[in-house]
Amino acid sequence: MSKESSIPLERSSERSSERRSFLTRFNAGAASLAALAMGGLAMAQVKSAPAGRFEPARHDKDDWMDQLPGKHRLVIDTTSADGFRDGLLFASNFMLANRNDYGLQNQDMAVIVVARHLSTEFGFNDSMWAKYGAALQAKEPPKANPHAASLAPLVAQGVQFAVCSMATRRRAGTSARPRPTDAAPSPPARPPAAPRPGGSAGARRGTG
């Protein structure tokens, strides 16, 4: 074979080698891109998967709330005298609006008004107010719950009231303390003791 005829063959061999190298790099790059694409798709599927639904912790003491039949539920938390008054108004408006605008019945709603902290005593019944009213309110203590007129119709509609046990125990402890008006009366005045020899004094026995 002549020198002139061997030159094209060498160039052809170099070009074939370059093509093979290019195809090898291309295939490797394509495989890498495919792997990245698949990984990205997998990550997207993981991120788009809906998270598990939140489930609150359950306690036996709270089972009574599950027994309420209504599916339209509302909890109103109150911590003061004004807050309790407003809470009763909100509960009444909630019941009224759902009956008038949504056609619901009382049993379709479950409303709980919480009385705690400084509103605790307004969850007590009239008997407790009649007995401990002076300890519950120092100024002109009433003989019945001041909100009795508003409580009665709400109870009739199925509204529930939850009263804080910690605050109730605190109130009970306060009520059990002796008040100044409960102090034992002072003993009647006695005549001065008769002097005895030696300068000591002895009390006289009462004769009345």
Tell me, briefly, the overall form.
elongated
Number of helices: 6
Strand fraction equals: 5-15%
The gyration radius over C-alpha positions equals: 43 Å
Coarse structural class:
mainly alpha
| Average pLDDT, all residues | 76
The beta-strand count equals 5
General description of the model:
The chain has 208 residues and is mainly alpha-helical. It has a domain at 69-177. The protein is 50% helix and 11% strand. The protein is built from 6 helices and 5 strands. The chain has helices at 3-48, 63-66, 81-102, 126-136, 148-156, 165-176; strands at 72-78, 109-115, 160-163, 194-195, 201-202. It has a 3-stranded parallel β-sheet. A two-stranded antiparallel ribbon has the order 4-5. A hairpin with a 5-residue loop joins strand 4 (194-195) and strand 5. It is elongated. Mean pLDDT is 76; it is low at 185-208.
Secondary structure layout:
Layout: H1 3-48, H2 63-66, E1 72-78, H3 81-102, E2 109-115, H4 126-136, H5 148-156, E3 160-163, H6 165-176, E4 194-195, E5 201-202
Parallel strand pairs: 1-2, 2-3
Antiparallel strand pairs: 4-5
